[in-house]
Sequence to fold (254 residues):
Amino acid sequence: MFYCILVIYNMDISQSVSYNELKKQNVKIIVCDNSEIKTNNQMVVQQDNQVYLSMNGNKGLSYAYNRAIDYIFSQTLTGKEKICLFDDDTQISDDYFQVMERSNSDICLPKVYDEKSLLSPSLMINGKSIRWDESQPLDKKNISGINSGMCIQASVFENYRYDESLFLDYVDHYFLFEMKRQGKSIEVVDTILHQSFSANSNDLESELNRFKLFKKDSEIFYRLTKLRGYHYTLLKRKLGLMLRYKKTSLMWRL
Fold:
């Protein structure tokens, strides 16, 4: 049995690429709605005989995941359930669930590509998240990845929940950091997903607000893991914004 957790924010669920593809599968979809606007999402999801959980406002990714996991563990479980995480805009391959079903690993990571290259799995080396060059062997010690497409044995969450101090960024990296520390098995499986990143925006004020969230989550992640790299990561993000908008004056706002 697959439980698929889909977190959405301020959108019509019927416009979600992931939701529409998941409906074609024999899985149970749990929609966690962080929306701050009025929608018909609850009616649509329940009419599709899926599970709708309102977060009553934007409570963040970790909070939404935990509410969905609590719901799953309120059901009668056999011990063989798997939990899959998806963003709202992930294109899911036809063989995704068959591949995940065959694996006995605690955590499975598909190969996820964005408009640039391979996005996940990635590497966390010396506190810096970098893209994995597929022509090189994958360093399992430093493996990391994104949430969307991740498939996790439900048993992993018997004594674990996501750290809700992380609102949006680094939720995935910290989860995998903790799982490696616990000795959980992590496998990269041979199925491919495609991700459209909504982080790319042309609205300066939206990007500045997004940066504030990133800054806070980054500080928490590096404090929790005791990894170095916080200042480098923040500077890289700042320079990226300055170059994108060609405004050196942005520095004082970041």
